[in-house]
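Per reviewer request, we include the raw input and output of the structure prediction for the construct analysed in the revised manuscript.
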Amino acid sequence: MDVKVILGGLAFALMWSSAFATARIIVASAPPLLALSLRFFLSGAVAIVIARAMGQSWRLSGGLRGPQARAVLIFGLCQNSLYLGLNFVAMQWIEASLAAIIASSMPLIVAALGWAWRGERTSPLGVIGLIVGMAGVALIMGTRVSGGADPLGIALCLIGATALAIATLSVRGATGSGNLLMVVGLQMLVGAVTLGIISLLVEEPTVTPSLRLGLAFLYQSFVPGLAATLIWFWLVGRIGAVRAATFHFLNPFFGVAIAAVLLGEHIDRLDLIGVAIVMLGILAVQISKARV
């Protein structure tokens, strides 16, 4: 990897990890599903405008039944509506650092489902990484539950991470064509519409305006929402999906560190041990994939 790739990977991991702490700020002052719906609408609209300015077409490869249309629908529902929607709801009750750690287990879930569901080859190093990584997540969840963390919030985060893992396996490679930004924008609009409808049915549209809320919302929309996505696809195009995914091993550390600095969340010794174990597990799984 060259210096640009390393810096890009670090930037992606930092941006992705920062989404949890800023989401915690948002849900403290606004209904989570409404806020996320509006975030997706803003991010998606900007992405589509930029895509059109770059000459990208509305027309998806393969038509409405092709792989790109399937990717738009599945990722729009699973990643944006389920994964992020459930995380936003859960962060009303659990800390951002815990949500970030659970979400970081997604590459481990992808590897486990790929082996069990699709019969993908898993080396001994990969098996060890899965066991170690899941053990680290279990250690952190156990200590947080014993310390009073809400079990429902933890369950919602786990369901969300599993939904995203299933979507990743279902549409692997389906977005790899010349109109990626358009595909990303359309995925966001799917999430905006879905979450907007659900919000109208189950939430009271009560918002407590503040500068802190406004800054967190704009940051969410344009940094984790758009910039991190574009950097991710650049990394995949430059070094491939497997090697790019190696940067996910940094997410537990960054997620915990940002939550501690921005929100003042308490991190104890067992949390740090658990984070280190999860990072090693994810790294082992990604290295094993690169060797298969």
